[in-house]
Amino acid sequence: MNPLKFEQNRLLDIIAIGRLCIDLNANETNRPMEETSTFTKYVGGSPANIAIGSARLGQKTGFIGKVSDDQMGRFITNYLEENNIDTNGVTVDKTGAVTGLAFTEIKSPTDCSILMYRDNVADLKLHPSEVDEEYIKQSKALLISGTALAKSPSREAVFLALEYANKHNVTCFFDLDYRPYSWTDEAETAVYYNLAAEKCEVIIGTREEFDMMEKLLNIDKSDDSYTASRWFSYRADLVVIKHGGEGSIGYTKDGNSHRSGIFPAKVLKTFGAGDSYASAFIYGLMNGKEVSEAMKMGSASASIVISRHSCSDAMPTNEELNQHMETAVYEPAK
Ligand SMILES: Nc1ncnc2c1ncn2[C@@H]1O[C@H](COP(=O)(O)OP(=O)(O)OP(=O)(O)O)[C@@H](O)[C@H]1O
Ligand SMILES: O=C(O)C[C@@H](O)[C@H](O)C(=O)CO
């Protein structure tokens, strides 16, 4: 069963809002950053990656965000446009802010980390006045991700986008995307995550991300079914809890649960798994697939991206995804 209904007759399928940055992924893998000398530049940031994944799969995709007024900012906007993403909602910072940089260190397939340069970044300067109600109204869905809630005015911009989306029946997806290095205070983080989740129809996160939200409320059960049930008295119809290489579980408001296994991959690096999962999972749901099938599509997309060098540029097309699902081995959840 698919519990979601999307407004039809809208110009766009999905608009993502938030972080647009640059990933500099180590070319020399299996070594620490200290010994890495060359990197390849890609567009990065969780909502950017999800938007790129959506567009590659054929979704009419738009973006609301802010880029720096320099070569890096222009690189990002050009790349989004080359990938058929509508950039009418992307504004250019005029205060001298810079583009966030994420240097990735790939010590081994399972030991990857990200070194962030995020002082005075343009994406967190997105202002509520730059969020256009008419633009959001044209879309079937809105995707938010947690990092944009880390600072004002981007935080207020996201809450305003959620208000408009709720008002105009635009289905809201929340990919928790908790990046501790973007936040300074645990209670502040949890409060804003919980407030945003109340306004969303679909919440997707890892067990650890939900634990972070629940710790503030002294919930220490780490119980997936309980975690999901907390959101059904708000707007949520569907809550997905991801467990890395062990797959994921989705709960629907009608009391059912759905498990997805994984497509074992030759892992190059683990980051990007969540973004590729989200883009294909959302695509599946928006195209009438059952929850379990959409989750399987998410897992297939993730297995493709973790076996490639980048997060954004590695996103599969519809054809690649279908082919992978037909030919790759699927390991059902235990
Ligand atoms: N080692 C793996 N092999 C195959 N598939 C995997 C592996 N790790 C993750 N996945 C797939 O990716 C999905 C999301 O992974 P995970 O739970 O690690 O999300 P995440 O922590 O949000 O990812 P990210 O590292 O991008 O933040 C999983 O549900 C699974 O389908
Ligand atoms: O901003 C980050 O934390 C890194 C991203 O740029 C990266 O593309 C990512 O989020 C992968 O999930």
Characterization of the model:
With 334 residues, the chain is an alpha/beta fold. The protein has one domain (12-19, 50-95, 124-327): Ribokinase (UDP-N-acetylmuramoyl-L-alanine:D-glutamate ligase). Helices cover 32% and strands 24% of the residues. The protein is built from ten helices and 13 strands. It has a nine-stranded mixed beta sheet, sandwiched between helices. A four-stranded mixed beta sheet has the order 3-2-6-7. A hairpin with a 4-residue loop joins strand 12 (248-252) and strand 13 (257-260). Helix 1 crosses helix 8 (273-286), helix 5 (186-197) crosses helix 6 and helix 8 (273-286) runs antiparallel to helix 9 (291-305). The two termini are 21 Å apart. The relative contact order is 0.15. Residues 21, 23, 44-46, 49, 102, 114, 179, 271-272, 274-275, 311 line the site of the ligand O=C(O)C[C@@H](O)[C@H](O)C(=O)CO.
